Amino acid sequence: MSEPLRQGRVAQRPDDSALSGRTADAVRPGVREAIKLDHVTKSFDKRKVLDDVTLEVAEGTGFCLLGRSGTGKSVTLKHIIGLLRPDAGHVFVHGKDVPELNARELAEVRRSMGFLFQNSALFDSISVGENVAFPLRRHTDWADSKIREVARAKLAEVGLENDYGKMPADLSGGMRKRAGLARAMALDPDILLVDEPSAGLDPITSDEIDQLLVDLKKGGTTLVVVTHNIPSARHIGDELAMLHDGRLIARGTAEELDRSDDEMVRAFMRSEGGG
Ligand SMILES: Nc1ncnc2c1ncn2[C@@H]1O[C@H](COP(=O)(O)OP(=O)(O)OP(=O)(O)O)[C@@H](O)[C@H]1O
Ligand SMILES: [Mg+2]
Q1: Measured from the CB, is residue 67 less than 6 Å from ligand 1?
Q2: Residue from 73, 117, 245 to probe ligand 1 pocket by mutation (most atoms less than 8 Å from CB)
């Protein structure tokens, strides 16, 4: 299918024990970092939204970012994509310092990433299938027939094989979310950033999306998933981290967070809260 787009994958995966010692250098030597935030601080007006955040995501692993509303989760993702620049600190993607890249280099790094924003903003004026085809038309020189075929296959992966020609306004909220995910996956990105995949989905669809993400990870894709859904984070995440008031207050495997010294972290982990 779109296999030629997959590049630079490493099959190597860290085992869980390697990720359990929480330090800034938690990624095991020999395992490459897909993403690293190094002492990132960001304020809006005078409010510090990210306060000295350091984290790494090893290639081919799932990283789930947790935290209450307004704690800086989406802002963190926007730094990784290069939509926001840190006031201090560095953001690396595949070893490249994202805020320092020129427009062409940034475009190249972004091409290796798929992202699904919180509101899964589809273009309302074009069909669902053309939404998925959009990044393919933009970034490849494939023939129209191939682009349609790949877009159709991506829609099938999220259970929307019959919806190519529909307009986004005619989809349910959950279908829009899935279409957004298909678009994020269109170029077979090495890194997939997803902001709240289960928000607004019924539990069965939500489980299906989780399984899809886990399957992508098995294929080598690095996942960064923002979620309020703890069962989903347990399923997807090799590592979980919790932001609170812009600071990373916990980081580790789900089991480690369950045993955190911090009652708030434990309470968060006990919640079954969907969405
Ligand atoms: N571009 C911006 N300009 C000014 N303030 C911003 C901007 N983007 C985010 N903020 C503020 O930063 C804070 C963190 O926002 P963010 O969207 O990261 O929260 P979140 O953790 O994703 O919350 P939620 O779970 O509700 O999505 C909020 O107070 C928000 O208003
Ligand atoms: Mg958010």
Answers
A1: yes
A2: 73
